[in-house]
What we know:
The protein is mostly helical. The protein has a domain at 29-36 and 49-111. The chain contains 6 helices and no strands. It has helices spanning 2-11, 15-34, 46-52, 56-74, 78-91, 96-109.
Amino acid sequence: MAYYSARALASLGKRRESAALLEGLRQYAMKLKRTKAKVDYFATSLPAMLLFHEDLQRRAELTANFLIAQAAYGLGRKRRASQLLDEVLLRDPNHAAAADFRSEIACEAAGGAKPQDRPDQGTSTTARP
Length: 129
């Protein structure tokens, strides 16, 4: 959510605040990447972790790389962001947030609207011919 808050700030002309938020996101992700993962017994994802025996360190590294990719993209380091997204998706092809972000920046790079902004896509309840 910090990435989208930073984008909103930038669109309001608050570029310094946006850059500061993105830099904070990057620093948080770097700290997460260096921190040894451990089970948080109050985590809402605990049942899934116990059921599927997920590698917590791997998951933390993927999350950190995804957040760093968002920060990099927001700070104009688009090539670095793309490299990090490639790494995340290579290690976890089912990483929904990374796949969605990859699609979002691809649409933006092509100058097109995001899928949810197109009138022929999304959650409209009106009937189509």
